[in-house]
Amino acid sequence: MSARFLRGLAVAIVPALVVLAARAWLVEPITVSSDSMAPAIDEGSVVLLYKPAVPAELVRRGVVVAFTDPEDGRPTIKRVIAVEGQVVAIRDAELYVDGQHVSEPLIDHSRIDATYFGPVTVPAGEIFVLGDNRGVSIDSRDYGAVPLAAVRGIIMTGRH
Length: 160
Known about the structure:
This protein is an alpha+beta fold and 160 residues long.
């Protein structure tokens, strides 16, 4: 084989390998399969899952994460509402963390009026997640807090 051919082959293969490596270890496109995160993320949207080496280091209140659903093992996307040690409650559709009201401009509170939950304390090493579309979302209110070890990564979205 000629050196020119080998260089051409390298020019074609190296970028493809870089893209495959980035997808495997850094960023992965995911198609959203439910409307539980509407209006921030609509069903059918394609979002990017950022997969840092230690996703738990980036997990904080307000971040949207992908994790393995504890009930069916499928990938799931929800918003982190509270982290370990925090107390979560919903009173008449309004969210409270550690007794403080949390402003949630993306939530249509009129659709979930008269909703009550908790208070519950998030266990060590776990997070409490909720869908933005609370009326249809199956989330930590149903299956409890999610282990940080189940977090696959952070969803890259412009709306928080």
